[in-house]
Fold this sequence. Notes:
The structure is a single chain. The protein has 21 helices and 5 strands. The chain is globular and about 80 Å long. By secondary structure, the chain is mainly alpha-helical. 46% of the residues are buried. Helix content is 63%, strand content 5%. Strand 4 (468-473) and strand 5 form a beta hairpin. The longest helix is centred in the middle third of the chain and has 37 residues, at 264-300. The mean pLDDT is 89.
Amino acid sequence: MSLPPLPRWWPALLPVLGCAMLYLATMSPDVQAGDSAEFQLAAVIGGVPHPTTYPLYVLLGRASAMLVPWGVPAWRVTLVSVVCAALALAVLWRLLWRLGESRAAATLAVLALGLAPGVWHAATIAEVYALLLLLLLAFAGALQQLLAGDRRAYVPVVGLGVLGSLHHGLFVVCAALPGALALWWAWRRLQLTPPWRPVLMALMLGMAPQIYPLAQFARLGPFDGHDYGLPAGYFWGAPRTWGEVLDLMTGGAVRRGIFAWPDATGAALLLAGIARRLLFEFGPAGVAAGACGLWLLARERPRCLALVLALAVPALGYLLALGPAVGDWPVFTLPLLIPWTLGIAWGVRWIARHAGRRRRTLLLLAMVLVLAWGATRYRVSAKQHLTLYREFAAAVHQVLPADAVVVTHWEQGMTLQYLRFAEGRRADVWIDVVEPGDDPWLARARRRYPGRPVFFVGQPASVAGLPVTLLLDAPYADVYRLDPE
């Protein structure tokens, strides 16, 4: 009795499941710091994080924290990034296959992207970027289906377009132009009439996550404008009116004024940094294969290349406009990895077509190069040993007396907030997260907490000139006790 034939998509299982297992094995095991700790806190207790509030990610993280039966709550939230990154690779394989790539080319390209440290990093922390990558690739797949003449694709194009646009501003920048071009082509050139009722339903479903921050404000607000709405419920900015809530959902003051077009020197430095980033992500062989593939794509599929450039050029402009305003700008290079991955697939496809009898040997060599480069990225991408933040918080707890107040920076403060409000650790301690440049720590402590023991957590520069005593010299941050007046 012969076995049934394998489905045509079975090669996708190799890179997708392999990367998923890698992400799961190397993901951060516990609470993190800064924005990641804030997302872990918000997902566990039903809070609303910083603008633009990212309700889709928070809802997914909350579902994971409630439904996954093992691991600490912070780990369960991070698991969302693992799943989103693995699904993004599966969507990419399907997209490449539908574009006519061979299974070998699609598999190698997906593996190259999956092992790229930008994607690997996004997959192993509690952040919104793996979900952003998934939405971008799913939207690209829907556009490809629409341009292939399937009028039903209007539904996912609209639904994913709205969902992605409301998830992250970078989605709008990357997807707006190719989306508009594809919709115009389908409507005017292909004469495809949208199925209006399903499209309207997709529009409403795409907007549905935005109900979450509104519902949380209706349930917990209005707040007093201080302390992130705690302890009643975490809500970044502690809004007092519906207008302030809407302002936070659309960016708020934290997002306004950060864009400024750089001068020629700044632009040149940033472009050089992006080039170095591509080399860091794919290695010399991947950069060469991607460049050759994009050149071949320009000759053989110029319309496909035009859509790729419609995604990449606005993303590049976004990075230039950010300039030095955002310290983690390399994270925003993720959309640029998508067209380069397409170039890698096209380059491998050309090699496979023209290699003749050496085809298998060259494909095997390409696989070895991809895996070898991925192995060199392990040191900078793996986070399974990242227990520093809980260890730091535990050390802080040991030196704090009852009824203490901790005044600290955002990075350390969100770790302590998570342990305090998501896990109930040291419920007698109050965590006050504020930068000394926003409100001087000494004046704030004496104004808000007279008669209570106050401790500052940060670096020596944060408490320079203040009447403090060093209690704990830790690798991550120090703990100082404010001396009595």
